[in-house]
Structures are given as structure tokens and as C-alpha cells.
Design a protein that fits this description.
It is an enzyme of class 2 (transferase). With about 475 residues, this protein is α+β, with helices and mostly antiparallel strands. The chain has 16 helices and 16 strands. A five-stranded mixed sheet has the order 9-8-7-10-11, with helices on both faces. The chain has a five-stranded antiparallel sheet with strand order 15-14-13-12-16. The structure holds zinc ion. The site of zinc ion has 5 residues, from helix 9.
Length: about 475
């Protein structure tokens, strides 16, 4: 650990600058020397405005060692102003005295004036000798949170990750099992948890399997340019078994448009058991749900945002429609809705399961051929789905939440306006109130602007919230 690492990269606001300047004038800490130049002592005036302070390795060593190998207190308090260091010194002495373990050491070193290996007392404070020979202040349990508030939470602490925070603490302080304590403190920091987008790839693929045609279908709207007839969108219905696509031009994206489009397709499709759709208001409306129920669909499966990958066939079909339409519209044609049936036909490619056909050549029994084709298709589908799942699950870990679990949910940035993307909270905290599908949950959210709201989220966009334990 070097002091350079500690202070490096810290951009200091003008308020902070005042304190740093004091350090600068006294100890020449603020310097922008490179390690090669470290030997050179140079007075560097603190520039006005935000500045980056850096401490060279050689300087850090010198600072840390001090005349008697004990660092002076002013330099031991990252984030604590010099003015308050006297209070801090008194607080450390007081809390050290109250700590049974440290008070024993104080007694030996102080009143008894004896030696104790690895410990030293200076100005009433007990220090512990590190392997490097450096002496660090022995922090009693009652002050550890305060130290970390300074070394992690404060502006100077900068919410660094475990290693950097630990390095910063270790420039000055010591206590037993320090790494564990710092690790938990950093892990349970609410700011770090909600701002840092370190979302692991979580949630294994739950393949949507459809056993027969029309069992499961997915619907969505594709937005296009306005046709001469006034249609701006396309309602798309995909059969997840066959990948067969149906599309109907619509004027708008309302529930009434979705209902009209869906009912116009009813003569051509069997009513599916399950209809999948996204969270668009046109599909989540009571009206649409009532309609779906009325025509005999057993379940309307609303897929949360970013979970579309679990609905590959519908995604692929929409992508294809988009591609074909884009090419078509580029020619300046306003009659895409008239040509839709022909355009759709180019999407649908029915591949015959040739292998089984060949095998059964000459067989008279048509039922047998049908059966064998069906089996062949099913086997191929299974293999393909298994391969997709393997690919998707690579680098992913399964994570499951129970009702009552605290979790963080990633939010798409459009939900938080007014702040630059980088400054926005990436996660919101919430409590799992319901397990929806194997990979989706309903959460009651906490925090400004979302308090009490219930939202659905895919496990891939969630991570476990780490509660801070009360220090003993
Ligand atoms: Zn933090």
C-alpha cells in the first residue's frame, strides 16, 4: 500500500481543497510528482479550482514512517479535517480505554511501562505494528464504522471497491479481521449497491416450449411508417411451435387496435392456450385481458422488459418483419399494408424434415409418415432448444428469490429523467412480494419516486440486496 494510491484519482471539490491545502503547506503532500521524481523535494503550489492530489511512493514512506516510525495524526485521517483531528484523537483515546482488549494493552504499555511485542503507545494512543514495520492506530470496535464512513463513504473515500478502501484504511488504522469488516461494509453500502452497474449475468434460460401448433403464441406491435391508407403499425402474432407469423396493419397502438387485429386473425388460427405479450399498456389493459379471456385464451403471459430473449421466436419474427419492411420502405413505397401478405410469405420458410421422409419412402401408411415427421421435428426442436439453453446459460448462475427477500432491480434509464445517465441510480431496492414465472418476480419498491410501487422484474435484472449487519 502506498499513499499515492490513496490520494491518487481523487478529485477534490473546492470545499475539500481548503483542507488539502493545509496539508500541502505543512507536509508537501499535494504534489504531482511521478514516482521517478519522487526523490526530489519540491514545493508545489496548490492550483485553484478542483485539483488532483497525488502522493509519491517515496513521500508516502516518509510520511508513514515519521521520525520514530509512527505517523503523525494529521495524516492519519483520510477525509477528516485537520481542525477536527484533536477531537478525533480524544475520541480514539476514550474508546480505546473503554475497549477491554485495548485497555489491557494500555495498562501494560502505560502505567506498568513495560514492553509489549508489536504494540506501542504514543500520545495516549495504542498503535499496532504491521508486518512492514509501520505502526497503525488500533481501532476499537465502537469506532470502526466511523473510520469506514470516512474511508469509504466520504468524498475523499469515493466509494471505492474493497481493495482500494482497505488500502486506504490500512494507511493509518488496524484492527483484527479488518478485511472481513471492510468487505462487509463495502458490500452492504447502499450507494455502491444502487449505483454500480455490476450486474452479473443471472437467471438461466427457461425455454418456452410449445408442444403443438397454436398452444403458445406471442403478439407484439411493429412500428412502421404511415402508409397511404393511414396504417402506421403492424400487429404481429407468432406461433411458437411452428414459427408461423401472422400480421395485420393497424392505425395506432391502442388496445382497441390489438383486439381488432387479433379478432381478424381468429378465423385462421386456433385459439392458443397461452398468449405472450410485452408490458405495453395496450396489452396490460383490463380491456385486452377481458377480451383474451372471452375468446378462450387460458393465460395472458406478460413478459417483463429485457426478458424478450426468452421469447426467441417472436423476437426473430419481428426482426425479420422489420428487416423486410425497412428494405421495402426504403424504396419510398407507401403501400406496404397492401403488400403485407406477399411480404409475409417471404418470411415463412417451411423446411421439410427430409431425412424421415426419405426413410419412409414407399410406405403407404400416411399416418405413419405423419407420425415420423412429427417425431423428427420434435427431436430437432429439442436438440435446438437444448443447444440454445447451453449457449445462454454459459457464464450465468442461477439465482432465485423468495417472497420477502430484499433485492435490487435494474431500471432502464428512461424511467429517471433529468440527470445525465452516468449520475443516475442504476438500481432500485425492493422486496419480493410474489414469484411470477420461474424467472420473474413482483417487487414492492422503496425509494424516491417509486415508493410502494409494485413492479415486475426478470431475474437477469435483479441482484440480491446486502443488508448491513449491526456491528457487535
Ligand atoms: Zn459505497
Amino acid at each position: 500500500m502506498t499513499g499515492r494510491d490513496v490520494i491518487e484519482n481523487l478529485t477534490i471539490s473546492e470545499n475539500e481543497e481548503k483542507n488539502i491545502s493545509l496539508l500541502d503547506a505543512e507536509d508537501n503532500i499535494v504534489s504531482l510528482l511521478s514516482p521517478e521524481e519522487a526523490g526530489v523535494q519540491e514545493e508545489v503550489a496548490a492550483p485553484s479550482g478542483p485539483l488532483v492530489a497525488a502522493l509519491t511512493r517515496a513521500q508516502a514512506k516518509k510520511e508513514a514512517a515519521g521520525a520514530e516510525g509512527v505517523p503523525s495524526l494529521e495524516k492519519m485521517l483520510p477525509g477528516v479535517t485537520i481542525q477536527s483531528s484533536e477531537n478525533w484523537q480524544n475520541e480514539v483515546i476514550l474508546k480505546q480505554e473503554k475497549n477491554p482488549e485495548i485497555s489491557k494493552i494500555r495498562l501494560i504499555l502505560g502505567e506498568k511501562r513495560k514492553r509489549k511485542k508489536n504494540y506501542k503507545m504514543m500520545d495516549g494512543i495504542v498503535y499496532r505494528k504491521e508486518r512492514t514495520g509501520k505502526f497503525l492506530i488500533y481501532i476499537p470496535s465502537s469506532l470502526r464504522v466511523k473510520v469506514l464512513e470516512n474511508c469509504h463513504d466520504s468524498i475523499l473515500g469515493g466509494h471505492y471497491a474493497l481493495d482500494k478502501t482497505l488500502d486506504l484504511v490500512k494507511t493509518v488504522y488496524w484492527w483484527p479481521s479488518m478485511r472481513n469488516f471492510v468487505s462487509h461494509f463495502v458490500e452492504s453500502c447502499v450507494k455502491c449497491q444502487t449505483f454500480k452497474p455490476n450486474l452479473k449475468k443471472l437467471g438461466l434460460l427457461q425455454p418456452i416450449s410449445s408442444q403443438r401448433p397454436f398452444q403458445k403464441m406471442a403478439c407484439d406491435f411493429v412500428e412502421l411508417t404511415r402508409s397511404s391508407r393511414g396504417n402506421c403499425n403492424c400487429f404481429v402474432l407468432v406461433d411458437l411451435y411452428s414459427g408461423f407469423v401472422y400480421a395485420v396493419p393497424t392505425r395506432q397502438l391502442r388496445t382497441v387496435d390489438a383486439i381488432k387485429a387479433l379478432s381478424s386473425l381468429l378465423p385462421y388460427v386456433a385459439v392458443p392456450e397461452i398468449l405472450m405479450c410485452d408490458e405495453g399498456p395496450e396489452f396490460t389493459s383490463k380491456e385486452f385481458q377481458d377480451y383474451v379471456q372471452k375468446i378462450g385464451i387460458k393465460k395472458l403471459n406478460v413478459v417483463p422488459p429485457a426478458a424478450h430473449f426468452s421469447n426467441g421466436k417472436a423476437e426473430a419474427a419481428i426482426k425479420k418483419i422489420n428487416n423486410i419492411m425497412r428494405n421495402y420502405l426504403e424504396d419510398g413505397r407507401a403501400d406496404w399494408d397492401e403488400e403485407l401478405p406477399i411480404l409475409l410469405n417471404t418470411i415463412i420458410s417451411v423446411k421439410a424434415p427430409s431425412s424421415s421422409l426419405k426413410k419412409k419412402k414407399g410406405t403407404e401408411n400416411i399416418e405413419e409418415i405423419r407420425k415420423s415427421i412429427r417425431e423428427d421435428v420434435d427431436r430437432k426442436k429439442e436438440r435446438k432448444q437444448a443447444a440454445q439453453k447451453r449457449q445462454y446459460d454459459k457464464n450465468r448462475a442461477h439465482q432465485e428469490f423468495e417472497v420477502g427477500d430484499k433485492a435490487l432491480v435494474y431500471f432502464e434509464l428512461k424511467t429517471q429523467l433529468g440527470l445525465p445517465a452516468k449520475l443516475q441510480r442504476k438500481f432500485r431496492a425492493g422486496v419480493v412480494v410474489e414469484k411470477d414465472t420461474p424467472n420473474t418476480y413482483k417487487l414492492r419498491l422503496h425509494g424516491q419516486g417509486v415508493e410502494g410501487k409494485v413492479r415486475r422484474a426478470h431475474t437477469a435484472l435483479m441482484k440480491r440486496f446486502v443488508d448491513r449487519r449491526q456491528p457487535e
